[in-house]
Amino acid sequence: MSNITTDFNDRTVEYEQLLSDFKVLLKKNTLKFTIQREVVLETLYNSDEHLTPESLHRLIQEKFPELSTGIATVYRTLALLEESDMVTSLSFGAQGKKYELGAKMHHDHMICTVCGEITEFVDEEIEERQHSIASALDFKMSDHSMQIYGICANCQKTTK
Amino acid sequence: MSNITTDFNDRTVEYEQLLSDFKVLLKKNTLKFTIQREVVLETLYNSDEHLTPESLHRLIQEKFPELSTGIATVYRTLALLEESDMVTSLSFGAQGKKYELGAKMHHDHMICTVCGEITEFVDEEIEERQHSIASALDFKMSDHSMQIYGICANCQKTTK
DNA sequence: GTCGCTGCAAAGTCTTTGCAGAGAG
DNA sequence: CTCTCTGCAAAGACTTTGCAGCGAC
Q1: With a 7 Å cutoff on the CB, does A35 touch strand C?
Q2: Which of the residues B6, B139, B160 would you substitute to probe the A interface, choosing the one with the greatest number of A C-beta atoms within 10 Å?
């Protein structure tokens, strides 16, 4: 199983870069750089999980209680970031929408239906094949996502 | 581009079969077979689209106005069908949850970000590769889904 | 007949919006 | 200073639930 990768510790974009991109984006649209917006970006960056608006809000309140950031601001910032393609949203079954930074290396998702854990992976062969399919069907591909559902190694043990 | 298929006119399961499976399922759980439940199944079967609860409800009201089926029943029936794996739900971006019959042949989705059209396709190479990946990562795969986003052939013409 | 089902409307969730004061540029 | 942002709370959108009568078995 040569080229399957699940190790994303090497982020493709460093935080400083991300932050500066964000500032450029804001400036370009005559929007203001506020501490709340930075905190949302930073918290997303420092989380390895896929966060719901609610869990992101909770995290922010724990780390920066003095800001008493409102959930509305989290929603507004996520919408802004998603619109600008800086974050991506995923939604799996009944679990609602989850967000992740789009600046990480592209990857697909493997979702455990027992514990809800999401493992990321990349497979070059599938990536290439997706491009072939899109062009064969005369489709101008901009993005794609793939999810594999099942039971993770851990939960297989536990369930037994 | 040998084995990409987008033609799903040959359904893998005929309606009579589907209906009988549904009846078995109901009986097994001491649930009742009602006209409303049948109408939901039938309407899903006869639709080639991916339906939201709301659009499904609208369709049912148009085709069977005398039943004055409530939206609550549609939600309840969809939940029942999904739980029993007879339908699958998908959710793409902001467009909300859409349902489709799971009994059709397995396929993936290509979603036009301009007109929202969903084209279904199957590619054997990707199907196989997904199995390989799951087993390589010690993951017991139960299902998977893949979406390619982009602009369909039609909209590419129009946009020009 | 019994007991689950249905439509209705009310209650929940989750998300968005209006507003007045706070704060970035 | 101006004009956008923010938190709050209220409003919306979508989904689920309680209930009393209806209907499958």
Answers
A1: yes
A2: B139
Three-state DSSP class for residue B14: coil
Asked if B140 lies within 8 A of A150 by C-beta distance, the reply is yes
Decide if B77 contacts B36 (C-beta within 8 A).
yes
d(CA A109, CA A95): 15
**Mean pLDDT rounded to a whole number for chain A:** 82
The percent of residues above 90 in pLDDT, for chain A, comes to 35
* CB distance A15 to A48 below 8 Å: no
Binary contact (B153, A139; C-beta < 8 A)? yes
What pLDDT is recorded for position A160? 46
- Separation between Cα atoms, residue A55 and residue A40, nearest integer Å: 12
* Residue B120 CB coordination number (10 Å): 18
Q: B136 vs A4: CB contact, 8 Å cut-off?
A: yes
Residues 6+ apart with CB under 8 A from A107: A5, A8, A120, A121, A122
Measured between CA atoms, how close is A149 to chain B, in angstroms? 5
All structural domains of chain B, each given as residue ranges with its CATH number in brackets, are: 12-101 (1.10.10.10), 108-158 (3.30.1490.190)
Query: pLDDT digit string (tens) for B12-57?
Result: 568 888 999 999 999 999 999 999 999 999 999 998 777 899 999 9
